[in-house]
Automatic annotation (TrEMBL):
Keywords, sorted A to Z: Repeat, Signal
Species in which this protein is naturally found: Cohnella rhizosphaerae
Range of residues in the leader sequence: 1-22
Pfam families: RCC1_2 (PF13540), WD40_RLD (PF25390)
Keyword presence, Signal: yes
Protein name: Chromosome condensation regulator RCC1
Top-level taxon of the source organism: Bacteria
SUPFAM superfamilies, per database record: Fibronectin type III (SSF49265), RCC1/BLIP-II (SSF50985)
Keyword Signal among UniProt keywords: yes
Occurrences of domain Fibronectin type-III (ranges): 391-495
Length: 521
């Protein structure tokens, strides 16, 4: 998968060469159809490399789309969500844009944030009456933003603070265009406010402004229409938290504004910032993600840095001390995407594995437990569903005897970056009926248990003169499988003898040679 979105991708976004997947993404941009990680308030949604949607964590209102309201500490598939191009997540709701352009939503809907014209929660995906969507942002609040491919922004859901940007405080349960916005390339919905990134590198904001969320030097209860954030240009990515915002400039620096009670702005203070200030000590950054009251940044070297509220270990440095400036999250490397939730954090590595830390009462760390962690820990989640590649799918046999043989095959390859050894399993049958993985699994006989990093197997205890059919399946740690071409082996037959009697002495006659051999005993 592609790890970076770098300056080249930024240029492509600015000139409309590829769709923008920013917004609620709370993560590095991901090409259409590629792995993508997004976070809601208490849950995660993942898009696999094959276009399937999976989720884990809070599920009280059906935000995981598995047809239940049971919280999940292990990933479950969102029913019906295949061939998906991008995903988004809100407080307890989730969204998907399919490759055919249709938009789907599921989960909590008390403010109409699903956009299906109702305020009824949906445990399974429902289609929305909006198309030509490039990306969605469910954000941390109860409203939703959509960026259309024509650069317009649409909004629905809660609007008490003007977060829909239509000049009113009236909520909506269906999408409506935000007036006055055009040529936008990314959107991000915060707690009770919204921000958008324009193709010229400027940032625009609307909604709640009591903590300076608008970034224009003012404070107010409701900014009902978009205003430009002061002093920001050359911005390539944005992310909105509960009451603070992050902006990434093309030079790799990070800027922040809004609430700063616990250091989420990252300027070394706890002073509220009503205009953007530069985050201390960060350079060469590729992606940013604003959580509830903390922040994440992904650097070009694949490391993750965090700051802000840390009562549950969401900063990931092994402590629960609030951090007013960035510190490195422990033990993470080769990270491709980041995604911060309310009180938790997550990272997707280049091998497709998800690592989580912080609050875990809803199972959002994906570890199979509900135990918090103050350092990043590998979960049970894998978003790479590409099967291992075979340089050669041929199995060969040698040293065939009456009761043994040697099987050999070329080892498969995978891009697991050394984090997941490939596993091989050999199957045996007396019939030529093991053609597919499914048939092998049900009909084959396992000769050996899983063995990692092997390319041969010595077969023993075979019967002489018998035809055998062998197949090999290789599986990576994510569970993706590839089958080799079946190989037939016929063991050497032991010559047959007939026993005759001449007088009282038994003799053995071998084949057509009719040579009599005296049998001892």
């Amino acid at each position: 998968m592609v790890r970076k979105w770098s300056m080249l991708m930024c240029v492509a976004l600015l000139f409309g060469l590829i769709p923008a997947y920013g917004g609620e993404a709370h993560a590095a941009a991901s090409p259409e159809g590629g792995p993508q990680l997004v976070s809601g308030y208490y849950h995660y949604v993942g898009l696999t490399s094959g276009g399937k949607v999976t989720g884990w964590g809070g599920n009280e209102f059906g935000g995981l789309a598995d047809g239940t309201n049971v919280n999940r500490s292990k990933p479950v598939a969102a029913k019906g969500m295949t061939d998906v191009a991008s995903v988004a997540a809100g407080v307890r709701q989730s969204f998907a844009v399919k490759k055919d352009g249709t938009v789907w939503a599921w989960g909590s809907n008390n403010y109409g944030q699903l956009g299906d014209g109702t305020t009824t929660s949906q445990w399974l995906p429902v289609q929305l009456a909006i198309d030509d969507v490039a990306s969605l942002s469910g954000g941390i609040g109860y409203h939703t933003l959509a960026l259309k491919k024509d650069g317009t922004v649409w909004a629905w859901g809660r609007n008490d603070s003007g977060e829909l940007g239509d000049g009113t405080t009236t909520g909506r349960s269906v999408p409506a265009e935000v007036p006055g916005l055009s040529e936008m390339i990314a959107v991000s919905a915060g707690g009770y406010h919204s921000i958008a990134l324009k193709a010229d590198g400027t940032v625009w904001a609307w909604g709640l402004n009591t903590a300076g969320e608008m970034g224009n030097g003012t404070e107010s209860a409701a900014q009902k229409t978009p205003v430009q954030v002061t002093g920001l240009d050359h911005v390539v990515a944005i992310s909105a938290g509960n009451y603070h915002n992050l902006a990434l400039k093309e030079n790799g620096t990070v800027w922040a504004w809004g609430a700063n009670d616990w250091g989420a702005v990252g300027d070394g203070t706890t002073t509220k910032r009503i205009v953007p200030v530069q985050v201390q000590g960060l350079s060469d950054v590729e992606a940013v993600s604003a959580g509830g009251w903390h922040s994440l940044a992904l650097k070009a070297d694949g490391t993750v840095w965090a700051w802000g509220y840390n009562n549950l270990g969401q900063v990931g440095d092994g402590t629960t001390m609030n951090r007013k400036a960035p510190v490195q999250a422990t033990g993470l490397a080769n990270v491709a995407q980041i995604a911060a939730g309310a009180f938790h954090s997550g990272a997707l590595r280049g091998d497709g594995s998800f690592w989580g830390w912080g609050f875990n009462d809803y199972g959002q760390l994906g570890s199979g437990t509900f135990t918090d962690s103050n350092v990043p820990a590998q979960s049970l989640v894998w978003l790479d569903d590409t099967a291992p590649a075979l340089a050669s799918g041929t199995i060969s046999a040698s040293d065939v005897t009456t009761n043994s043989a040697a099987l050999r095959w070329t080892k498969a390859t995978d891009d697991m970056s050394g984090q997941a050894d490939l596993q091989y399993r050999v199957y045996r049958s007396f019939k030529n009926n093991i053609q597919t993985v499914a048939e092998i699994e049900s009909k084959g006989i396992a000769v050996n248990a899983y063995a990692s990093d092997i390319g041969e197997l010595q077969l023993t205890d075979l019967l002489d003169g018998m035809p055998y059919y062998f197949n090999v399946i290789v599986k990576d740690k994510a569970g993706n499988k590839t089958a080799y071409t079946m190989q037939q082996i016929v063991t050497v037959a032991i010559p047959t003898y007939s026993v005759i009697y001449r007088g009282e002495r038994p003799y053995r006659r071998q084949g057509a040679r009719r040579r009599l051999l005296l049998l001892r005993g």
